[in-house]
Design a protein that fits this description.
With 66 residues, the chain is mainly alpha-helical. The chain has 3 helices and no strands.
Amino acid sequence: MGNVLFKIEVNGNLEKALGKMKREFKKGNILNEIKKKSFYEKPSEKKRRKKREAKRKMQKKLAELS
């Protein structure tokens, strides 16, 4: 996971700035990366997860074509 840098101008409205920060986090999948790296994943589990993700992605593409 690389460093992510984004600039948010507060201009007195902290709630709006926090909302913008949360959207940027979701857009960059930062929270998902943190969750994945918060515990050790065995290589066999990693392969299994990647296969599941690839299968889901392929099914999604096929559904779009149909």
